[in-house]
Amino acid sequence: MDLDHFVRSLPKAELHLHIEGTLEPEMMFELARRNGVALPWDSVAATRAAYAFSDLQSFLDLYYAGAAVLIHEQDFFELALAYFERAHADGVVHAELFFDPQTHTTRGVAFATVLDGLERACDEAQARWGISSRLILCFLRHLSEDEGLSTLAQALPHLARIHGVGLDSSEKGHPPSKFARLFARCRELGLHVVAHAGEEGPPAYIVEALDILGVERIDHGVRAAEDPALLERLAREQVALTVCPLSNVKLCVYPTLAQHTLGQLLDAGLKVTINSDDPAYFGGYVAQNYIDTAQALGLTRAQLKRIARNSLEASFVPEGLRAPWLERLDAMPA
Ligand code: HPA
Ligand code: ZN
């Protein structure tokens, strides 16, 4: 079996995926036309050509500009359904989708419009492809904690449809501790909690996310590699890291994939997973992330199986759902 086929055959969960980051330029232009929204680029090719980022912020500026074409329930539905179709082709059996309500509510789009469209796509993906999914509301860390608390208030009537919360956007200067009260409230509500930490921010932000926010997984977390005591802790506590290798190279966290620390994190015994983050902007969906990383770092098939197993184990699903996926995975050749 060639590597491409092997990777796509591995049952896997995608745990770090911003649904707004799956907006391909073709759909961006179609929605811009349909909704009468002006874009800063004049063609699909010019848009793709603008995807040369120097850091996280240079990406976020474009990502928020692109998201402005999403207005109606149908837009969110089509966006998420297109993602699920690609995820299915990549062997994803379960996806936990991040969504950024503040990116939309600040433009006058109702919270329920976003959620209704995404949820309808989740239902359709289950019916068409048997993919299970969960929705994770991400708070934008460049906004204030009070703005996060008012977003949580808007989410309250919909909590049955929201599985957890996360923290994303500009990391530097916005430590997890800024959101201590907000995350305490989310935990009291019984929500799962995760946070981006240690992507561009220092290892200390990973420690804050664990100790102050009480997160169950760390999104990215790759800068843990700089701190031996933290590496030892993450391995001991088996905290899952949702690593996004192509994203890290596109946003210049590492100069090349060959210099990525994923292999080092795996060797240190951490529960590493591979994910696509914002695949429409970073050049590949989840299977491509597995394949390119395996080739650049010389990962073995046993290691790729381990990574897929980690993703299933770290997903927020009941055992009854997880067990058949693990059985399928174990039946794969190593
Ligand atoms: N980091 C922080 N915020 C984000 C990202 C990311 O990689 N993608 C979308 N929002
Ligand atoms: Zn992310």
Descriptive report:
This protein is an alpha/beta fold and 334 residues long. An eight-stranded parallel β-sheet has the order 1-2-3-4-5-6-7-8. It has 17 helices and eight strands. It has one domain (3-315): Metal-dependent hydrolases (TIM Barrel), CATH 3.20.20.140. Bound molecules: hypoxanthine and zinc ion (ZN). Hypoxanthine is lined by residues 18, 21, 56, 63, 168-169, 196, 199, 247, 277-278. Zinc ion binds next to strand 1.
Topology:
Elements lengths: L2 H7 L2 E7 L6 H11 L8 H6 L6 H12 L5 H17 L2 E8 L1 H5 L5 H19 L2 E9 L4 H11 L8 E5 L11 H9 L3 E6 L5 H9 L5 E4 L7 H10 L2 E4 L1 H6 L11 H6 L3 E4 L4 H4 L3 H12 L3 H14 L4 H12 L4
Helix pairs in contact: 1-15, 5-7, 16-17
The structure holds hypoxanthine and zinc ion.
The site of zinc ion has 6 residues, from strand 1.
Q: Say what the CATH topology is.
A: TIM Barrel
With helices defined by DSSP (H or I, 4 residues minimum), what is the helix count?
A: 17
Bulk shape: globular
CATH superfamily: Metal-dependent hydrolases
Strand order of the largest sheet: 1-2-3-4-5-6-7-8
Largest sheet: 8 strands, parallel
